[in-house]
Amino acid sequence: MFVSRYLLSCALAILLSQALIAEPATCVPMSMGEKWEKRFIALRDRNKEKSPDILIFGEALFEKWNFRPEFSPIFKEMFGNRKFVNFCSGGEHPQTLLWKLSNGNALQGLNPKLIVLNIGGDNNRDSAPNTLEAIKKLISVIKLQSAGAKLLLIPPMRRGKEGGDYWRRSEEVARGTQELADGKMIFFLDLEINLADKGGKRRPELFEKNSFSFNKAGYKEAGNLLKGTFCDILGN
Question: Is residue 83 part of a domain?
Fold first, then answer.
């Protein structure tokens, strides 16, 4: 009897200690203020009636591609036959995206076939493990709210000097993100690796000078790669 009670108390203590372990800050939804919230809600409401096949969340990669005048014609040429809603925003962190999904009801009224997630680069002061925990939580929230949608994970382009701290962090986030894909409902595409040269090095001719951002040539090559990936995943 004493042993049973002892074992039970030990088990309860372990469960309690696990429950008390706080999530990293990257997993806590974060608002950027009232004006930011209103802008997002207005964007969400404008897109409610579009019935998109593909929904994109993430950082500046897709925001620039879709909305900047010098790049948007490439986006329309590549994907004009598909119904998109683009919620990407430069400076997006996992925490702010969690707010949009959990508090801002970003998926409300939408039934996409595919959700693209490009996140984990702009919060480069957060560790790779904490960022990956946030990506796992984002996947869980998305699956709960849009269970029938497939998910394409695209890690951010590598940051900083090649081989430096920020670059290694980006590599760790990319590797960890790839491990979350199952090839059935969750897919993975690393633009950095797929657009590299034969030696695995970044091709400067695809990027803006001294930047990890694509130029027109980069967006065209990325677009061709994505077109094929969308067809593979969606079957059309």
Answer: yes
The DSSP H or E segment spanning 153 is strand 150-153
Only one residue has tokens 């995206």, namely 97
Q: Which amino acid is at 177?
A: T
Number of domains in the chain: 1
Q: What is the mean pLDDT of residues 171-177?
A: 96
Residue 62: which residues within 8 A CB-CB, separation 6 or more? 56, 86, 88, 116, 118
Residue 97 · residue 156 · CB < 8 Å: no
> What is the pLDDT confidence band of residue 16, given thresholds at 50, 70 and 90?
very low
Residues of the domain holding 47: 24-234
**Coil, helix or strand for 177?**
helix
Tokens representing residue 15 in the block: 């469960």
* Structural domain contains residue 54: yes
Taking the C-alpha atoms of residue 173 and residue 170, their distance in angstroms, rounded to an integer, is 5
Residue 11 lies in a domain: no
The amino acid at residue 90 is G
pTM for the predicted model, two decimal places? 0.88
Identify the CATH number of the domain in which residue 83 sits.
Answer: 3.40.50.1110
Residue 8 lies in a domain: no
CA 223, 219, 150, 146 dihedral sign is negative
Percent of the chain's residues with pLDDT above 70 = 91
Task: Read off the amino acid at residue 164.
Answer: G
Q: Kindly report, residue by residue over 47-60, the tens digit of the pLDDT.
A: 877 888 999 999 98
